[in-house]
Amino acid sequence: MKKPLIGMLSTLLLAGATALAAAPTATAAPADAGATTAATAAAGTSAVTAENVAEAAGTQARAAAAVNFAGTVALSNCSGSLVRLPGSAATDPALVLSNGHCLESGFPGPGEVVVNQASSRTFSLLNSTGGKAATLRATKVVYGTMTDTDVSIYQLNTTYASIQSRYGIAPLTIAAGHPVQGTSIKVVSGYWKKIYSCSVDGFVYRLKEGSWTWKDSVRYTSSCNTIGGTSGSPVVDVNTGQVVAVNNTGNEDGQRCTDNNPCEVDQNGVVTVRQGINYAQETYGIPACFAAGNRLDLTLPGCTLPRP
C-alpha cells in the first residue's frame, strides 16, 4: 500500500535530501494559497446552478498538459479527490474518494466493509497549482473496504455548489465505463503535490497483497513510479479528465504477495511478480451503487461493491 510508512521512508532515503526537503510531513497540510485566492474565486463566481456545476465537471475533457491539482485533496496520510458521480447534482452533499487503507480507523480486515460510519476527518482542498484553497470536513465514511477493491468514500458537510461558489473548484467526475488498455493517464497526488504520467499497461485478474485480494486491478506502465503518500490519488484519463481508478499499491522489493509487494494471479492461478510496478483499483463500479442525492444503496441493480 502507498501510505507514507516504512516503504515510503526507504524510497525517500534513496531519493535523497532534496526530496525530503521539498515534501510535507505526514501531518502537514499543503501550503495555503491564502485568503486572497479564495476571496477572488468567491467574488468571481456567480450563483451556481445544478447545470453549471455539472457542466464544469463534465467539461473536464482536458488535454494532458491541462490535468492539474484542482479538486484533489491531501489527507493526513494519503491523497484523494473531491468527486461527483455522473448523476450527481450541484446541491448534493459532496464526496471525497480515497483508499480503504487510508481510513482513519485503520486497515479494514479481509471481508470487512464500513458503511455510513461517523467521521469528522478534514481534507485540504487544492487549487490548480497545488495551493491550499480550503479545509473540507467529513460527516461520515459512506463506504470503505479493502475487499475486492481498495476504496473509501467520505461525505462532506457541504455541497458541490457551495464549494464551487466559495473557491471556484469543481469536483472530478468518476467515469461510469471500464478503463481502456493503452489509455494515457495521470496519477495526481494531493499529498505530495506531484503528478505522475504513464499509460494503462493492462489489467490484473487478481492482485494479492498480504491478507487482501483485489479484482480486475489497473497495472501502470513503469513511468508511474508512485511512492508512499500517493495512496488514494485519482487516476485521471487525460482524454476525458475523468477519474477511472484510484491509486493504491506497488511491488517495492520483488517479494511475492507480501505487504507492499503485491503479486498478480491470473485465471489459471499463475503468479507473476513485477518489482517496481504500481497499481490502481478501478472506480467505474461506484456510480451504480449510488441513488439520487449521492445516497449509497448497495442493493441497486448493477451494484457489485462488496456488502457488509
Descriptive report:
- The chain has 308 residues and is mostly beta strands.
- It contains five helices and 18 strands.
- It has helices at 6-15, 17-22, 35-44, 50-58, 160-167; strands at 72-74, 79-84, 93-98, 113-118, 122-126, 132-145, 151-159, 172-173, 184-189, 194-209, 212-220, 234-237, 243-250, 263-265, 271-272, 278-282, 290-291, 295-296.
- The strands form three sheets. A six-stranded antiparallel barrel has the order 1-2-3-7-6-5. Strands 9-10-11-16-13-12 form a six-stranded antiparallel beta barrel.
- The protein is globular and about 50 Å long.
Descriptive tags:
308 residues, mainly beta, 6-stranded antiparallel barrel, 6-stranded antiparallel beta barrel, globular
> Percent of residues in beta strands?
35-45%
Give the averaged pLDDT, no decimals: 86
Structure summary, number of beta strands: 18
Radius of gyration, Cα only, in angstroms? Answer: 18 Å
Order of helices and strands: HHHHEEEEEEEHEEEEEEEEEEE
Q: What coarse outline follows from CA principal-axis ratios? A: globular
Number of helical segments with 4 or more residues: 5
- Measured as a percent range, the helix fraction is 10-25%
Question: Brief overview, please?
Answer:
The protein has 308 residues and is mainly beta. The protein has helices at residues 6-15, 17-22, 35-44, 50-58, 160-167, and strands spanning 72-74, 79-84, 93-98, 113-118, 122-126, 132-145, 151-159, 172-173, 184-189, 194-209, 212-220, 234-237, 243-250, 263-265, 271-272, 278-282, 290-291, 295-296.
